[in-house]
UniProtKB/TrEMBL annotation:
This is Porin. Residues 1-23 form the signal peptide. It comes from the Bacteria. Keywords: Signal.
Length: 322
């Protein structure tokens, strides 16, 4: 996890340095995927946040789900640099991007023993081409994008063709505009939701969390979160996570953010072999300031374990900001 944390933090610092630029883009995608080695087709989808820098350069953070080809359930997060033909003009513009993709792959082992699957993690190169159509007098746009993901560890390469619908947020600086003093932002948020074990059966459990969040800069938050992942044999893990977040305002009331950090487990789920009390936690969140003091939050979290008990934690809750 040390290498992952360093790369994510470097990306966060780079995006934070661009705070003076106002434009931001959020795009949702759906489409099809082709596995090169097995010549198999499946579905795919994703979401991306893109930050233009001038007219011809951009940076993006994205999440991609690579569907369910035989024996694999793979998804991951990517950071890319983009070169584009133009920006924010009606009609078509084109772009090419390249970067790194950190994947999570639940792989069936076809084993006769008790261990039926494994959670593999690793890095892959990701290369992309896109064509975007901006509508006149509108912040909405449509996009066609082609991604090629090429792991370096012997994993299958994939090609994704997706259609996207996006919205361009303009007119805000991106910092915590809802605050009079960004450096004093603190919040306590109680959340509940569902946890899904990254296994072949995707076992589910009711989960809960209590988050303390503090702004340590205009674009950076720090959180400490107590998490209870439920009581099933697959999910009975609880502990405390500490994360750093890159936070961007897309309107005076709405923030989006990406966080990464460490998750220290007091209790761990049943698993064959060694069970570690340390894991990683990667998160994406949306926060909506209902009032000056009350904030709603929706969060997706990926627990990254080293003993094949990765999990998705979907949480929703209300917090008090002070």
């Amino acid at each position: 996890m040390n290498s992952l944390m360093k790369r994510i933090l470097l990306g966060a610092i780079a995006l934070t340095a661009m705070g003076a630029v106002t434009a931001q883009e959020l795009t949702g995608y759906a489409g099809g995927l082709r596995v090169k080695e097995t010549k198999e087709n499946t579905f795919t989808g994703g979401v991306a946040y893109t930050h233009p820098v001038g007219d011809y350069l951009g940076f993006s953070l994205s999440y991609w789900n690579e569907g369910h080809p035989t024996d694999h359930h793979r998804d991951g997060v990517a950071g890319q640099v983009w070169v584009r033909s133009g920006y924010n003009e009606p009609g078509w513009n084109f772009g090419a991007g390249a970067g790194q993709y950190y994947y999570f792959d639940t792989t069936e082992l076809h084993s006769k023993g008790s261990t039926k699957y494994t959670n593999d993690h690793g890095w892959a190169a990701i290369y992309s081409l896109q064509a975007t159509y901006h509508y006149e007098n509108s912040r909405w746009y449509n996009q066609v994008q082609l991604n090629h993901i090429s792991p370096s560890s012997g994993k299958d390469s994939t090609t994704l063709l997706v259609l996207g619908v996006g919205y361009q947020f303009s007119g805000v600086k991106g910092d915590k505009l809802h605050l009079e003093g960004p450096s004093t932002d603190e919040a306590i948020t109680l959340m509940a939701g569902q946890g899904i074990t990254n296994s072949l059966d995707s076992e589910r459990a009711t989960i809960a969390a209590l988050e303390y969040r503090r702004a340590i800069g205009r674009y950076v938050d720090w959180t400490v979160t107590a998490i209870n992942e439920g009581s099933t044999a697959q999910s009975k893990r609880n502990g405390v996570a500490s994360q750093l977040w890159l936070i961007r305002s897309v309107s005076p009331k709405v923030e989006i953010g990406a966080g990464a950090g460490f998750y220290f487990n007091a209790k761990v789920p049943d698993a064959d072999g060694q069970r570690s009390h340390k894991a990683g936690l990667i998160s994406i969140a949306t926060r909506y300031h209902l009032t000056r003091r009350v904030v709603g939050e929706v969060t997706w979290n990926r627990v990254v374990s080293d003993y094949h008990r990765d999990a998705d934690l979907f949480l929703m809750g209300l917090g008090y900001s002070f």
